[in-house]
Amino acid sequence: MPRRLPINTREVQEARERFLSTHEPDSTVVRESILTSWRRSQALRVQVDSPHLPFVREPNLDSPLATAAAPVLRQLADGLADEAVSVILTSADGVVLTRIGASRGLSRHLDAVQLAPGYSYAEEFVGTNGIGTALETRAPTLVMGSEHYAEQLGRLACAGVPITHPISGTLIGALDLTGWVDDGGGSLLATLAKTATNQIEGRLLAQASKQETALLNAYMRACRRSPQHGVLAFGHDLVLMNRHLRQELDARDQAALLEHAVDSTATTAPRLVATLPSGQTVRLCSAEDFPQVSRATMALFHVHLIVEASPAFVSAAVQAPPLPGVVGSSVSWRRSCQQIARCVREGRWVVVSGEPGAGRCETLKAAAAQYNPSAITRVLSAADLRGPAGDRILAQELDRERFSIILRDLDTLGQARLAVLADLFQGREHAGWVGATISTASHDTTLEALILPFFGETVPVPALRHRIEDLHELVPHLLRRLGHGADLTVPPQTMRQLSKYSWPGNVAQLGQVLHEVIQRQRSGTIGVDQLPPVCRALSRRTLTQIEALERDAIVRSLAENRGNKKDAAAALGVSRATIYRKIKEFGIDL
Questions:
Q1: Which residue blocks in 23-115 are alpha helix, DSSP H?
Q2: CATH numbers and ranges of domains, the chain
Q3: Which helix (H) or strand (E) segment is 14 a member of?
Q4: pLDDT, tens digit, for every residue of 74-117?
Q5: Helix (H/G/I), strand (E/B), else coil: 311
Q6: How deeply is 49 buried, as exposed, middle or buried, from its count of CB atoms within 10 A (0-12, 13-18, 19+)?
């Protein structure tokens, strides 16, 4: 004869069944926090009978969280050795890192419901549960029996508590105690989980790296010394921005500033000039050196807000018509274009800095065509300027009356070449016009000492990821230019997918992507599945050639198998665990 359920559990089970059949909540029986989670689970279309639980990745047991938690988990498990309770630690995305428990029966049941290392118990996969709901709400959560959304978890009681980093406040994981609901003791499990979580966070604070402490101390010193200037610091999960920056910059500018700072750590340049989405120009100066760690993970910057023009000019620049053939209406882009146009109109030599493919040379050519139409503008690349032949070519151009020259990628030339250029420029500053392009990451003392003094202004142009709103104009413009009569439209969902990508190759890469699409399709609507694999993988790091091939193969296999990861893995001859890990690693989004 089956065991009779306690009356409260039976009432919750009946309320759950009514909710699933009629979508009508019963707040007299079910707690509001559980009802809210049920609604989220329903909106996420979590399967009630057999939810799909993905194996995401092999757990990293060397992470700071796992290292800090290990002795606490072991002590807690030893204290519960005579109880049917499992101690479970997860990452911030719900992936189980470790599970400790002495009860074989409970362990077998947890294996059967895939509450095991490597699997994700986030709400989006399994619905209401102690782990996923605690992570979703960032609050301690007790889920008893039929309060679980998934039928297969109805025999369990789960007490989950989110774990936050004690310095940054970032959510980094969860601790969960799971046992049989019939054994009762849910309140005790919740209390034990809270106590153990406090111990883990205390150990995280104690083991905080010397580098983080050094960064925090350096940041505080910088703030005390320069209270009227901007100070920005970041390290691992820690981001610090002083009051001056928070007051002067809006949320979009703050986010862009942080991204510029992170980008700059990939170079050795101690200074960077950048234009933010609002049009505000800033100069970042590296303020401290942390030799024991990579600059890509820890840095401190002084941030200077540059006032380059009066508010009236900035307003006029934003409202002025764009250069012919140059597309984009974001404030930062329009401001850069107008600064370049002003220099050309006034006959001043100008350097345009930015990432390759961002439109540096195209903007110079458009400005020269509009404001210097009587002259033929000669564009010379760095390769054209190398060797004696390059010297003769440049000398001939500079000897022309009212010359107009654009020199591309000057920062890639060596010191000897730059010295020759400086000699050729001497005395010709007012005989014509020269524009040049350099990389944002460039920091060549010879370039600064010998070449840049000839140029009246250096204008930075923003990377495409810093003016992503311009995609809505760039995409149709490029389709018209590249299509040669092709009739293609881009629906909102495809534009959203394009907006998610970071575009390391900027506008040039966008043109290549659209060219690939046009080669396969000449008319109709461009669906997300028609985009090249690179646009459906959102990894921020640069992939190796082999990794890019792996990514493309996985995207194609997923598309051919209609998103079924199991079938895609079988078609590729890899395990399901491998394909889940690769999807996560490459940020594949289908």
A1: 32-43, 64-79, 104-112
A2: 7-206 (3.30.450.40), 210-306 (3.30.450), 346-462 (3.40.50.300), 469-586 (1.10.8.60)
A3: helix 7-22
A4: 999 999 888 899 999 999 889 999 999 878 899 999 998 999 99
A5: helix
A6: exposed
